[in-house]
Amino acid sequence: MSKPDVLQMKPYPAWDETPLNEAFTMHRLFEAEDRDTFLENVGRKITAIATRGETGADRSIIEACPNLKLISVYGVGYDAVDFEACREYGIKVTNTPDVLTKDVADLGVAMMLCQSRGMISAEQWVKSGSWASKGLYPLMNRVHEAKAGILGLGRIGYEVGKRLAGFDMDIAYSDVSEKPYAPDWTFIQDPVDLAARSDFLFVTLAASAETQHIVNAKVLKALGPDGMVINISRASNIDEAALLDALELKTIRSAALDVFEGEPKLNPRFLDLDNVLLQPHHASGTFETRKAMGKLMRDNLTAFFEGKELLTPVL
Ligand code: 8YV
After folding, report:
1. Are domains 5-99+288-305 and 101-278 of this chain identical in fold?
2. DSSP state letter for 81
């Protein structure tokens, strides 16, 4: 029996590539010399796409595959998938929720601690000999008992909050509505008001057209010169130009960022800053989680080809 044809947008680790190639005929778009010719040749055969969170599938890809029925995303975020085109052509979309939640929360909290206590430059202080020549490292900022704001109390935001509670932080959150599962945390709907009472502002919202630049110049002004912003969601949730201005002018204290507009290329202004912690979009990047994400993405593909119910549909 011939194997189903799947369009693969980007590479996966070997432990995913092997079972994918065993079960399906994978058409590797990222290896194509000429993307248009490649799609012209295989487009009609394709009924499913395997993609990654930050890669998604845009309208041009969707329209190049007229028999497409499913887009299976390796990632919880599906903002890079053109939902309008999917609705128009009746295409289903799945993602990989839950399996990555705790890793993303772990990294967000680690970024807060690392940046607030200046751990990266403290290591430089040791390695460069400054400890011996100049003495004690400059004092940094306390985390425990500080005020934390969580913008978006979904799965990841909630796990961030649970961890922050362990540091006796005073936790507030903003979302479209008050969450019954967070009775001990203060609900503040307006992001500006949330930022105004926060020392640490976590951005944990699922990105969409509605959340675009939700952290804008006004929010950053409210966060103020003692505030830090931590973004483990998507770059589009923050007005990056306003953030760069705030960091350069030190109208906020610092930022810890795992995501960037146009990543993996960064706005060069970030590279000159001494008040940022820059991470390469790896919040879900542990062996355990990536293996679970790969399996869930494959299981959705298998369910689809076997005519079974999709495990984690988002459309
Ligand atoms: C990426 C992500 O999918 O979950 C998401 O939405 O962006 C990430 O987990 C990951 O970097 C693999 O490409």
Report:
1. yes
2. B
